[in-house]
Every structure is written in C-alpha cells, then in structure tokens.
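Internal tracking record. Fields below are filled automatically when a chain is submitted to the structure queue. Please do not edit lines marked as system-generated. If the sequence contains nonstandard residues, flag them in the REMARKS field before resubmitting.
Queue: standard
Priority: normal
Entity type: single polypeptide chain
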Amino acid sequence: MKALLHRHRELCERAVDPLKIAVGLEAHGVTDRTAARYRHRDVFSLAEELHARVPHNTERPSPEPRPLPVPRFRAGRLLLTLLPGALGAATVTGLRLAEGTPRLPVALGGLLAVALATRAALRHSPLAGPPGTRAGRTVSGTRAGRPTPGARAGRTTIGTRVGALGTLGTLCTLWLLGYALLGDGLLHAVLTGGPDAPPTGAPEGPWPTATAPALALLLACAPAAWCAHLLAAAAHRGLTDSRTLRQFTAAMTPRLLGTYALFLAALAALAALCGTALHQPAAYPQVLTLGALLLPARLLTVRHHRRAPARVLGAAALVEALALALPTAGRLPGCALLAAPVQTLVDVGGEAAVPVLACGIAALALLRHAGRTLTRASAHAPAGAPE
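SYSTEM-GENERATED OUTPUT FOLLOWS
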C-alpha cells in the first residue's frame, strides 16, 4: 500500500474526493482485480483508503475545486457540422446539371470542398473531442519537473505513433466513404469483365455511383456531432452525480446505447430522404452498417483511444479492397479460384453484401470495445492524454 501511495502521491494530494483518485487510478490501469490484491472490494474502496492516508495541510485551506466544464454546442460549430452535407448536396446538384466534359471538374472540385469542410468539422466541433491530457497522466523519465532526454525521446515516439494511428484511421475512413460512393458499381463492373470506362458520376453510367448513400453519410455529420455532444453532457452529469466507478458505468451504459440508437435513427431518416430526392435506392444496409462503424470509431478517437478504431477501420477497408482485388487476380491463367469467394458472396447477397459484411462485423467489434471503454470514468475525465 505504501508503494502504491508513493507512486500516486501527486494524484492523491491534488484530488478533492475519493472519486477523483479512483478516476486517476483507473486511467493508470488499476482495476478491481488489482484492488483485490490490496484487500479492497473495488477501485473506489482503494481510492478511499488512499485519500484517507494522504496528509492534508489544515493550516492553509486548499482552494475550492473548479467544477467540471459543461459541454456547450456553439452556433458556429453547428454550422461547421452542416457544411459537409451542404457542399455534398451542391456537388450532387452540379453533377446532375452538368453534361459532358464539365462533369469531371465539378466532381473534383466538389470532392475537394467536401474533404476540407469535413476536416474543419472534425477539428472544431464535438467530434474533435475535449482538449488537454488525460487526468493522472505521468511521464516516466522526468525529474524535478524537467524532462530527461529519455522522456523527450519517449514523448517523440508516442507522438509519432499517435500521428501514424490518426493518419491510418483517416485513410481508412476515406476509403470506406469512397467505397460507399463507387464500390458497388466497381465490383459489379469487375465481376462482369470491366470496367471498360471511368465513372461518369451518373447512376446509369457504365460505372454507377451511389450518390444517395454518400450524401446521407455527409449529412449525418451534424447528427453525429449532436450525439457526441449529448454523450459528453451525459458523462459530465455522471462524473458530477456518481459516487463510485460502478455507479458511473451503470449510468453511462444506457446513455451510450441510446446515443448510438439515436444516431442510427437519424441516419436512416437521412438515407430515406436522399433516396427519395435523388430517385435512387436508399441502400439502408450499406449506410447503416458504415454509420454504425464510423460513429464509435470517432467517439473513441476523440477520447484518445486511437489504436482500436484504426485497426478495425483498417480491417474493414482491407476486406473491401480484397473483394475488388481477388476477382481481378482471378482473371489470370490458373487463378480463377481466387474469385470464387467474392463471386459466391455476391451471388447470395448482391454487391452490397461485401460492405455490409465488412462494416457490420467491424461495427459490432468496435461497439463492444466502446461499451467497455466509454463507460469508464477515466475516459471522460476533464483532461485526457493521447494514447
């Protein structure tokens, strides 16, 4: 117990109640099983003893703790979340009005504008996550407040790793969105001996583009930001009202699932609206499975848990890439067997079976991980550190 107290003395001295110590311990990986080794039933009971053991200076009163900041959703950030969908709608309208050669510049300009708007929305909205570093984070190799060369090297390594994970997640997300727009048409062309021509941006072209699902996903940026805001507000209330970590987890689990269901309902409504407006199939299975994958990936990323989203998004993107590569490789002499799995899957469920299977399984895995991670108090501490 003395060693544990020495290791977390700074945390215990700064904490104003046992819950803050419990959150910090949880952020350091201390679990109920760890607490049992110290003869405590859970982390909160262990935190109570640490809080009681820390000597307090009774002569100089400690400053009053500042209340946790209440998440706010400003009007400017709301407009940013609406911008990707608005630019996507403008691009689709321009493609429908343009004929002949102007289609290509309109498509490229629209894609660039949508990409920049989406980047701005992800950096300046509830989807950007809270600033700061995770509570209770310590950096090994520091002495007297000055980092040693080993600590600086460790920080550089961690920063490089975090940057690589962020880049991988972004690239995989762009691939998944691109597949939602062009993937089914390209897979159909590959399985029928094509493609013989580049995409024209028209649903009836030789390489059909599914603009309705892609537009629905862009418009869903605003509901996703609202859902992230609601989850952050619920976590704030939970951290304020809860007295134990188990109480916080029990309160956050239904809130997380409710936020997830609310987003999927909004996404389904947007898919129906876009399909009706563009006279295209709403493609509910593709849209909902991809949305169900992207929302928990973003929620985990903004809470500084980047490794699992990057890996799961990468696995889903890899499956879709293999679905396109295997039939192409099957055209080589003696390699027809390579195309058999994809051809069988398409014969059973159509071209949509590939993204539904890839994104659906990935979404279930990531939702399970989010259910274990985002219901922990340390994930919503007022300060967070990159993974």
